[in-house]
Amino acid sequence: MPIRIVTTHLEFEGQVEEVRVVLEGEEPPAWGPDTPFQVVGKPTARVDARERVTGAAEYSYDVQLPGMLTAAGLRSPHPHARISRLDASSALAVPGVRAVYSHLNAGDFINPSSGKPVFGNELLYHGDLVALVVAETPEQAREATRAIDVAYEPLPFVTAPDAALAANAPMVNTAVPSNTISDEYPQVYQRGDVEAALAQAEVTIETRMETPAALHNSLETHGGAASWDGSRLTVWSSTQGVFGARQQAAAALGLPMTAVQVITQYMGGGFGSKLGVHRSGLLAAYASRQLGLPVKYMLDRTEENLDAGNRPPSVQAYRLGAAKDGTLAALDLAVIHNVGANGLWSSPVALPAKELYQCANVRTTDRAARTNLGTLAAFRAPGVVEGIAGLEVAIDALATELGMDSLELRRKNFAERYQLLDRPYARKMLLDCYRIGAERIGWETRDAEERRYPGGRSGHLRRGIGMASQLWGGDGGPPAQAIAKLLPDGTAVIITGTQDIGTGTRTVLAQIAAEELGYPLERVRVELGETAHGVFSPMSGGSMTLASVGPAVRMAAVEARKELTEVIGQLAEAPADALDIRNATVFNRETGAEMGGVSTYLEQLGGHEITAKGMRGPNAEDVTVRTFGAQFAEVEVDIGTGAVRVVRIVAVHDCGRIINPLTYSSQIEGGIIQGLGFALTEQRIVDERLGMVMNPNLGDYKAPTIRDIPQIDIVLLNEPNVVANTLGVLGAGEPPIIPTPGAIANAVGHALGKTVTRLPLTPDRVLDMLSTTTERS
Amino acid sequence: MSSPSSNAASVSTSASTTTIHLTVNGRTRTLSVEPRRTLLDALREDLHLTGAKPGCNMGQCGACTVLLDGEAVYSCLALAIECQHQAITTIEGLAHDDQLDPVQQAFIDHDALQCGFCTPGQVLALKSLLLRDPHPDDDAIERAMAGNLCRCGAYPKILAAARSLAGRAS
Questions:
Q1: Phi, psi (5° rounding) for residue A106?
Q2: Which residues lie below 8 Å from residue B124, measured CB to CB, with a gap of 6+?
Q3: What is the mean pLDDT of residues A745-759?
Q4: Domain boundaries, chain B
């Protein structure tokens, strides 16, 4: 096959990156809007559902090996402190304890991601790692952490971002002379002249949105099991990317990549926080190599909530200017990010302000504060969830000021083109999403008396309807590879290096391969989650997996089928293009005659397995691929208690062709439910005086339960995006969480005639809103 | 703030082990455990039944749910030595001779799971409800399942699976 090196562009969470990729062969032509399908597009139960409902699925937490030891961490009880004494002798005396690691004896163990020691003697936040105990049983390990004798010298700390950036603020880390990320901050994006446009605007408004730190709380915590056999390291990692995890583990232990393999067959949720092997996985690997026995280190729930990342808090200040007819003239946004103690980046909170609405004069300013709190991690549409909430609430406030319908205001300022690069979108179905969603929710009657006051005006219930828009990348890109193997018995194996993090990747890849091979789904097995297969795929993040790996799988299946028909043609003395394969059976295309199952031919080949390679081709140039969507929320607010109940969400998203409507709807529902938690209940609570996290557990961190679920109506657009890739698919993981908090905030605003300024909308804040005087009509 | 503080060094002595008998999925199993071993750890560490998951180890998430005499309990909150006189059912014991329990089949058919980590607990919580109330209404279903968190948000489909088992279309 001809080899080409192609320069292409990848977008990941707001950042465009140029990459050079090696491509072999040619991708098949894109599936068109009228391509007929047998398997693709059909609601299909997960191919690995049986393992998941019977307990047979083995997660990293479940890995058990002979002689395996368990690790437990001792965590800092201070927001900022120096370890003045650490004596592990009592811990080492606990029966079953094999080792205690700290800066005293493992100070030279460097985390390759940060370049810093894993164990330091300056602790930067509540929950920072002090020491690690390795013991024979979990009970012994936990007991021994309490037996470590540590003296702490508390240091000045700062947790509020504005305080951290103020002159004379305490240094978050005494070794770093500034509390911002780098001298690239503040980051300013500018087009046009915002100040002049605001000064001339007929109408101006200012709004503010504060969003909390949200904790991922994947039900399987971060961690891994590691086994060093003297020459080779195997890590069972709860990760969203086995190849990145391998690279990190190899670098940390100074091993060649050939000496490390990473396995992730099943993993219990990541939501962006598990893009690598994590410090916990590195520690398991380190301890295993030191002790010569397998070691498992899974964080406990408290460690998870203190040290496994968060959606970082944002403070957003908007100034909007518009003409009386609603034409947006100016948009100014200042964001303060609280990235935690070791944050090296800030989230694209400002992305919606730059892109969503047509506006000639835009300025966004990002300031980033490091603080003595746990470090941020990507969390399902990082930044964009918060940014959409802030921007869409501001747009509603502007509509109120103008006396305009807010949806009409959005339509009026619809952006035809991608303004940052002044180029077209591959497709933008946002107006369709507005129209369909508005019809479903009954937008026209949203101000009707009987709808707004379900118990009458004298009652205590108020209903409101609000909406918010969604934008996201989700187009994926190379490199991503797949191998298709057709076995003599008429089964097929698809091998990729991706992982199924619960989104249903195994199932959709099997559907794609079955479709192109002409095999029944149950004869296709997808192998993934292992670096040892050597078939590279990117991490499962940024809603990129299907759009990256899916086309590679399709190409591999197409190539395998070509080879299959060649082989059968030669054996049957028929031209290959006269052969059709359906249900793993060979047919003569012209006569319709059945010519036997594929295995009757493949079994004649002495065990030969047809093997074909596929890879993801380059992305389209000079065009921006996006998924757009909208959600509409109806809420009921009890003005006596401040309680908010979400009654209904209508979700309309353009995620391209839908391979599996069943698992697609699960993704959409899941995103909405996480967004509902962010809007109403979820927040990391910090005692500012103590610098301590008060709710690092699942009892006090209020994630939604089955009792909090509204009616969810999902509109399936299912329009292939043929510019994006040969499948016409776009990602669906992140889009559904993006508009939910903004839609709920606007619905609460509508119900109360107020503008929401803080999330989550807990009852106390709703009551505060009711007692403030800034009324909206 | 300036005085050094110390990590609380109240150390208990590791206890010796005790022999116990547990009836798990219809079989009597003899184990030697420390008295402090939870039922969850006994199932996972001693019997290698890893279907029950340690989501929090403090009775807040439900991923460790098993049945004790048909009642759904958090196995992280029970000590193994307390459970010697009850029939313990784990997710591994729910299917019979390769025949899935109807609850398991309904979870598959309705896609009532995503990452699957909470799924064994969800299945058993619903199983327990249906054992005592074969036709629960939505409120009963929600009450029975409210102690089982699903961070992926499979709740609408768990509800659909439960309604179908309760004999109601969803």
A1: -135, 25
A2: B65, B66, B67, B72, B89, B90, B91, B94
A3: 97
A4: 18-93, 102-165
Given A567, A587, A615, the domain boundary residue is A615
Residue A161 domain-assigned (yes or no): no
With beta carbons under 8 A apart, name residues in chain B contacting A692.
none
CA–CA gap between residue A157 and residue A690 (Å, rounded) = 9
Closest chain A CA to residue B2: A154
Flag whether residue B70 sits within 8 Å of chain A, measured between CB atoms: no
* Contact list, A501 vs chain B (CB under 8 Å): 115
CATH code of the domain covering residue A743: 3.30.365.10
What is the average pLDDT across A695-711? 98
CATH for B102-165? 1.10.150.120
Q: If you average pLDDT over residues B39-44, what whole number do you get?
A: 98
DSSP string for residues in A602-653: HGGGTT--EEEEEE--PPPSS-B--EEEEEEEEEEEETTT--EEEEEEEEEE
Final residue in a domain of this structure, among A298, A331, A359? A298
Q: B1 in contact with A at a CB cutoff of 8 Å?
A: yes
**Cβ contact, residue pair B53, A59, below 8 Å:** yes
Q: Which residues of B touch A679 (CB under 8 A)?
A: none
Same domain? A258 vs A283 = yes
Average the pLDDT over B3-32 and give the result.
Answer: 75
- Note the pLDDT of residue B97: 81
Look at domain B18-93 and name its CATH class. alpha beta
Residue A387 domain boundaries: 314-475+622-771
Mean pLDDT of the B32-59 span = 97
**Cβ–Cβ gap A674/B158 under 8 Å:** no
